[in-house]
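Deliverable D5.2: sample structural annotation.
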Amino acid sequence: MPIIEMHLMTGRSVEQKRAVAAAITEAVCTTLGVKAETVRILVTEHGSEDFSVAGMTAGLRTERQQESEGI
């Protein structure tokens, strides 16, 4: 039973999450030769202050980018 764990930033629509789940399931079934009923996908969403790269949260990175663009 394949279990796929996917982490996303908040803000994706229900339709987008459903579409990616379907696409991933299809890819796993094709490449691993398993039935769709055995594929599990766990989606964890993170807010902009719950995810960071190089010590800077995504929220702070967005703020600084907007400042540099004069937004």
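Annotation notes: The first strand starts at residue 3 and ends at 9. Helices lie at 14-32, 58-69.
The annotation will be released with the project's public dataset once the embargo ends.
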